[in-house]
User: Which sequence fits this backbone?
C-alpha cells in the first residue's frame, strides 16, 4: 500500500510541475504580447509626434532584454536558471542541514 501512495504522490508532483511550467510559459507569452503591442503604439506615437527625435528604441531595447531573459528562464536555456538546478540546490541545502543535525545528535 505504501508503494501505491508514493506512486500517486509522484503523479501529483509531476502534475504540479507540469502545471507550473505551463503557467510560466503562459506568463512569458503574455509578456511577449504586451511587449509587441505596447512598442507598436510607442513607435507610432514617437513617429507621429516627434519624428525628428526618435526615442522609441530605448523601451524597445531594455524591455526587449527583459523579455529575452524571461524566455531563457522559462524555456530553461541556461541550466543555472532552470528547475533542475533549483531542485539540485534545494537537495544540497537539505543534505547540509541533515549533516548539521546528525553532528549534534
Assistant:
Amino acid at each position: 500500500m505504501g508503494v501505491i501512495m508514493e506512486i500517486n504522490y509522484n503523479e501529483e508532483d509531476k502534475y504540479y510541475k507540469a502545471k507550473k511550467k505551463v503557467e510560466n510559459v503562459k506568463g512569458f507569452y503574455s509578456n511577449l504580447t504586451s511587449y509587441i503591442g505596447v512598442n507598436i503604439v510607442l513607435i507610432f506615437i514617437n513617429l507621429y509626434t516627434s519624428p525628428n527625435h526618435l526615442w522609441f528604441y530605448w523601451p524597445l531595447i531594455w524591455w526587449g532584454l527583459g523579455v529575452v531573459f524571461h524566455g531563457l528562464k522559462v524555456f530553461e536555456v541556461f541550466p543555472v536558471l532552470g528547475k533542475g538546478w533549483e531542485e539540485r540546490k534545494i537537495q544540497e541545502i537539505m543534505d547540509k542541514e541533515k549533516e548539521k543535525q546528525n553532528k549534534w545528535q
Remarks:
- The radius of gyration is 22 Å.
- The CA atoms of residues 3 and 92 lie 26 Å apart.
